[in-house]
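To: structure desk
From: M.T.
Subject: fold request, one chain
Message: Could you run this one when you get a chance? Sequence is below, nothing fancy, just the single chain.
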Amino acid sequence: MDTVPIRGRGAAENPPNRFERLHYDIDPEIPPDADDPAPDTQFFRDATRSIIATNDSPDVGFSASINPYRGCEHGCSYCYARPYHEYLGLSAGLDFETKIMVKEQAPLLLRKALSAKNWTPQVLGMSGVTDCYQPVERRLRLTRQCLQVLADFRNPVGIVTKNRLVTRDIDVLTELAGYNAAAVYMSIPTLDAELVGVMEPRASRPAARLAAIRELADAGVPVGVLTAPVIPGLTEHELPAILTAAADAGARFAGYTTLRLPLAVAPLFEGWLDRHFPDRKERVLGRIRDMRGGRLNDARFGTRMQGEGVLAAMIGDLFALSRRKAGIGDHGPGLSTAAFRRPGGVQRGLFDDIS
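Reply: Done. Structure tokens follow.
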């Protein structure tokens, strides 16, 4: 039975978890109802004892990162992080965007990690897996508290987000930027608000993201744009317009990735195309295969972010040309650890900023 779109959600199904032998199916005798309300989001305490994750990938710009949340309510249909939910015994589908793990102790754990004698100051990425400014952050403020810890230590941070909520923390980001220790990358894969509404249903719309770039730039916070992911056959033609609009808003640097569909993400994205763009489905999937050696995903380091072949080269050339015409640099600022310190005496109260 074909699934129908669920208002405010990127996925419309919960595919089986590859690690679990049992799973549940919707009763095929019950017809789907597009008017049914979207499933509520549930939040669970994550009792993790560490907050800094490390990686050895040459494809990302940092080797250590912080993620205050697991799962993401933004509901991006293509999100490469969806399979991580399977390690929790959940589905990469609706579970990923409706069952969010909250690391309540993230600020405290971060302070402890940075205070350790064996901590080597380095750039920390935020949103390395899921967006640190997803909707619940407005209420819980865990990302803000983590930024305040980073400001106390003057430890550099690079943030990637799709949410204008990042501008709430301009005061802390400006403080860090004064030590060349902060940069924000706003992700804008399309300027089409209608497309964003079905592809990234609970993320900020494109105009709001451009406004966030402008606010950050005006405040002196280094800010750039990520045209990520580029979806061949659906969004690659927008690269010149996105980069021009971002530059006009104050973006100083830019990067891109092309769509990758690891594990359970591939069938979920295929289902999304069936629901929203059935006429373009085969063209989009065919172009992805052209860039991924005949597959929908190629996980090899060095190729997974941009792909290979003629089409991948064309997208890369279009991005580079559009970036140069827009007057945007191809690299973010070289963040510095020179001002790092381990503060003594009275420090900010962990929950002083909660209201």
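Reply (cont.): The beta strands are 42-45, 52-54, 64-66, 69-70, 99-102, 124-126, 157-161, 182-187, 223-230, 254-258. Let me know if you need anything else for the meeting.
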